[in-house]
Amino acid sequence: MSRFSDNWLLDKVMFDYIQGGSCACCGFPHLFAPGGLEGLINAMSDLETDSKHHEINAAKVSPWPDDMRDQIWGDRLLLRFKMKREMKDYRAFLEEVVKKDSDNDNDALSTTNNDNDTITHMNIQDAIPILKNFCTTQLSPHDLHQLFHLQRTDLTEILKSKYKITSAYAIVFCAVVEQLSNFHHTGYGVDAPPTCCCDGNTTVFDEEGLFETVLHYNSRGQGFHLNIAQNILIEDSEEEWKVNEETLDIFLKRMVSLAGPTLLARAAKVVTDDDDDNKNHSGDDDDDDGTEIDNRQRSDNSSSNNSSSSNKPSFRSDRRVARLMIARYWADRLIEKYRSMQEEVENQSST
């Protein structure tokens, strides 16, 4: 068993559960399970149909006790529900940014009249260059560097204090965060589903996948961090920081994606030539049963993710949620910094 693999995580959670939890945030209040275990798993909108079938089959032979297993899946669903309710807050902020900027640029808003009602359409993607300008002109590169740090223990504290989840899933989450901090040891590929794989060799990822590739962990002080700015001077006595604009662009795009439309994207459906022939010649409507092919998961199952055999659960979705929580934490810090500086400007202009 390779260290920090999904099999390692499975055994660690079982051990920590028996010991009563490996951290202070782990307790075990029971949570309801509507529709049973299969109902909980099927309610996970970010899992592809094949992944749901895999998890249901894996749960049947899981070494975890039934009550523990049901608590974990129940809180997986509860956490997603709570996080989905927060998506509107990120949209509201991005619209606020665009609206403020629109005072100097009326093209940022598109307004039409329909039956005496005014409908305003705002493109939140317009917030990206605005926030980039704020980060590069209103914040020093060193301040920007300091903004994008997060200690490993802070993630479990967010789960406990912000989302009030202290059941058996807290043990899973603690182990997932440890796995995430040692992800380079697992040999796994990118957890986020690819948006396309056009020529069979080139894989294109969306904002989530790109963010995953620039997220780093350092146990010596920084914890989880982005190399969003670096000191370009070799001398220890002097510092000259420079912003890594490519990494900044990736984060800002990920920040905009926090507003939705989905919490975590599902893998793109792959349409084969046979599917096209059936559509063109059968005359029947395409009745999508939700079955999708996850290119990344398929490649993992056949290569680097061999440690997760067919009868073992995957913790890929938990890692995606943990990275989402990291992105939100940094987005919240940037939002706080932006609003604070905007308030200072407004106060100065009013005096």
Outline the structure in words:
The chain has 351 residues and is mostly helical. The chain has 14 helices and nine strands. The protein has helices spanning 6-19, 36-42, 49-60, 66-85, 87-101, 127-137, 141-147, 152-161, 168-181, 207-214, 245-257, 273-282, 295-302, 316-350, and strands at 109-114, 117-122, 149-150, 194-196, 204-205, 215-218, 223-226, 229-231, 241-243. The strands form four sheets. A three-stranded antiparallel sheet has the order 3-7-6. The protein has a two-stranded antiparallel sheet with strand order 1-2. A hairpin with a 2-residue loop joins strand 1 and strand 2 (117-122). Helix 2 (36-42) packs antiparallel against helix 3 and helix 10 crosses helix 11. It is globular. The model is unreliable at 24-32, 107-119 and 271-309 (pLDDT under 50).
Proportion of beta-strand residues: 5-15%
Question: Secondary-structure element order, as H and E?
Answer: HHHHHEEHHEHHEEHEEEEHHHH
**Regions with little confidence, pLDDT below 50 for 5+ residues:** 24-32, 107-119, 271-309
Number of helices: 14
Structural class, by secondary structure, is: mainly alpha
- Global outline: globular
Distance between the termini: 66 Å
Number of strands: 9
**Percent range for helical residues?**
40-55%
Strand order of the largest sheet: 3-7-6
Secondary-structure map:
Layout (H helix, E strand, L loop, with lengths): L5 H14 L16 H7 L6 H12 L5 H20 L1 H15 L7 E6 L2 E6 L4 H11 L3 H7 L1 E2 L1 H10 L6 H14 L12 E3 L7 E2 L1 H8 E4 L4 E4 L2 E3 L9 E3 L1 H13 L15 H10 L12 H8 L13 H35 L1
Antiparallel strand pairs: 1-2, 3-7, 4-5, 6-7, 8-9
